Amino acid sequence: MTELARKALLPAGLQDVLPGTAAREAEIREKLMASLAHAGYDRVKTPLVEFEESLLEGAAPELSTQTFRLMDPESRRMMGVRSDMTPQVGRIAATRLVDAPRPLRLSYSGDVLRIKGSHLRPERQFAQVGAELIGVSSAAADTEIVLLALEALESIGLPDVSVDLNLPTLPVRLFDAFGVSRDDREVLTEALERRDVAALRAADGKVTGVLVALLEAAGPAQSALPKLKKLELPLGASEELYRLIDVAERVLASGLDAALTIDPVEMAGFRYQTGVSFTLFARNVRGEIGRGGRYRAGGASGEAATGMSLYMDSILRGLPDAEPVDRVYLPLGTPQREARKLRAEGHYTVAALEGAAEAKTEAAARIEAQGMGCNHIYIGGQVVPLNA
Amino acid sequence: MTELARKALLPAGLQDVLPGTAAREAEIREKLMASLAHAGYDRVKTPLVEFEESLLEGAAPELSTQTFRLMDPESRRMMGVRSDMTPQVGRIAATRLVDAPRPLRLSYSGDVLRIKGSHLRPERQFAQVGAELIGVSSAAADTEIVLLALEALESIGLPDVSVDLNLPTLPVRLFDAFGVSRDDREVLTEALERRDVAALRAADGKVTGVLVALLEAAGPAQSALPKLKKLELPLGASEELYRLIDVAERVLASGLDAALTIDPVEMAGFRYQTGVSFTLFARNVRGEIGRGGRYRAGGASGEAATGMSLYMDSILRGLPDAEPVDRVYLPLGTPQREARKLRAEGHYTVAALEGAAEAKTEAAARIEAQGMGCNHIYIGGQVVPLNA
User: Fold this and answer.
1) Do A106 and B19 lie within an 8 Å CB cutoff?
2) Where is the Aminoacyl-transfer RNA synthetases class-II family profile domain (chains A, B) (predicted)?
């Protein structure tokens, strides 16, 4: 490894974001946040680290194994670096905003850090934009969050977005209802994750017929809904499935331009969801661009809530690069007042600098301008194209 | 401590940023970043953590004691959480952007984490906005960074900004030139930090006369400059002082509306500066709102560079709160298409939600709207003031 390569080396899954991309990320993030704000979601900002105890309270066990720990020398207590912001927003709702009227609509953006990347998401630091709708358990709330995500993605012009509606709690409900043993649950869950109909059929018990039917019903909402409506499920599971159908029909009725699929037994990646959930995709973007669903804010005994997170890196991959801005080269001797006036008018300027650019003639300044990435130059009190 | 207080407790110096403030911070941050972008400073984003070795390479020893460490289970090497972003930007300039044309102008924003807060700055996490001008060692470059900071602060309307120009390396230059012993340096440095003229005079040696003269010259640029110009300093020190005078005169000539003071022997808080430096203040804001100065990007053998950081928390304290936005309450039954249209037109909406708001009459909806912080309501296809 050369000295340069050694200095440039970052830990796996961490990266420097370079000119162009960093500005684009910030622009898209703020557009998404603006869309959430216009729908009444108030921005909050959570700390990068907090006490392990509060950070992980009520969180899924997986979150704990994904969280870096730090010792706080002030309090001599363990802190964790945030690996997800939803539990932090839930904590804010349950403490500082406990007296704010419900429904409480909150939004956030920020970077999270994880101990290990996944196969599909090798990044260990990534930027999220998210929203939480806290205090309401209705299908209308489930629907609002799905539509909120779609409207935000529409505001940035991300093409060909699709939503996959899921019900990650349904298999467990069915196992409970049919009295499936612990060993059988493991076998069936694995088969569901592999979408292995043959393995499901090979397993014993009444539940397998229902699971196969749910798996086979999965697909575009228009074809899945009639199949799901015909299924007869035990009490509990049946209510949950009807909630899913209700939300799907509400999303379809909203007239938003996104493909809707339903996959009721998809469980992968849902860590704390307790009801209707969803995964967002965009054509030509590998993996998901966001996900969301119903949960309890602040852990199992917390308030009813639903929310969603969007993944900035995936979203940026689905968007065209930003159009490069026009840059105006300011030759040596350009008065500061004129430079400021140009910027105030909206120009992007690149000033020649004594000690760096020593271009004395206009021809030399034009060459220097090109080298500095400018396509305009300020000459004789005018902004003129470089190639004019 | 109640259960609520226990859950809300954050480590000292860390905080939740609540609705209103969080949006305001983001708005001001992006305005500052836009001002830097318009002056040709390209945004980069640095990772939250990186290998300790590269994070602290060439950095001041104080930075090391302020940096939280984490073990990376992937590489089994130590990582540090960023406590300052300038060295990271220097690393990017020296590696990934080593072939980009100079001067290299980079900007960044982000949160840093420190092990211990200071008396004046008890926060341990704080948001910075900054810029680095890399590859040029001239007085013009020193001046550009000062003016860049002032123009950015002007763009957000921060009132009564002042700049204190400093030369934190000057005392050491003088100690070297006058052959001051190690013990005497300590005594003199302490006296300078306390601005204790009597203690300086009491100390022995030729250097004390110069130090007292420098201390007594400190003040508004208009009165300080003539005094400083009269001083005769040994070679090396004299050149540095003339650089300071040169930069001060350039800043004055720029016509920017900020008070300029000069304090050539102020050393406190400059950790890696190697030349002309500055501190930014705003009337009515306790402590500094930013600082900057000349340094070597990537450590002692690195490129000539100068840069500055602005502290978001201090800046926000100097600004009036954001004007609250108009919020339009959307009663139950408002079609999604109409809601989206209102938001696309720029309205901030708060939708009634089945399962939460069950207001059936217009009178009830108006009461509900008020409770949700709205000052408008959408009725009969019109946005009308609530109190009409």
Assistant:
1) yes
2) 25-289
In this complex, the residue of B19, B44, B372 whose CB is nearest that of residue A19 is B44
Q: Residues B330-384: pLDDT tens digits? A: 999 999 999 999 999 999 999 999 988 777 899 999 999 999 999 999 999 999 9
Q: How large is the ipTM?
A: 0.95
Structure letter (DSSP) for residue B18:
P
Substitution target in B354, B367, B383 with the highest count of A β-carbons within 10 Å is: B354
* B372 annotated as ligand-binding: no
Interatomic CA distance for residues A36 and B348, integer angstroms: 9
Label residue B146 by pLDDT band (50, 70, 90): very high
Q: What is the CA A162 to chain-centroid distance, rounded?
A: 14
Residue length of chain A: 388
| Domains of chain B, start order | 13-158+277-320 (3.30.930.10), 169-268 (no CATH), 327-385 (no CATH)
Cβ–Cβ < 8 Å for A156, A315 = yes
Distance CA A166, CA A149 (A): 15
**Distance between CA atoms of A150 and A146, rounded to whole angstroms?**
6
pLDDT band at A242 (very low <50, low <70, confident <90, very high): very high
**String of DSSP letters for B273-340:** --S-EEEEEETTSSS-SEEEEEEEETSTTSEEEEEEEEEHHHHHHTSPPPPPPPEEEE-TT--HHHHH
DSSP strands (E only) in B229-270: 259-263
Shortest CA gap B244–chain A (Å): 16
B320 Cβ neighbours under 8 A, 6+ residues apart: none
| pLDDT for A313 | 95
Please state at what angle helix A207-217 crosses helix A170-178, rounded to 10 degrees: 160
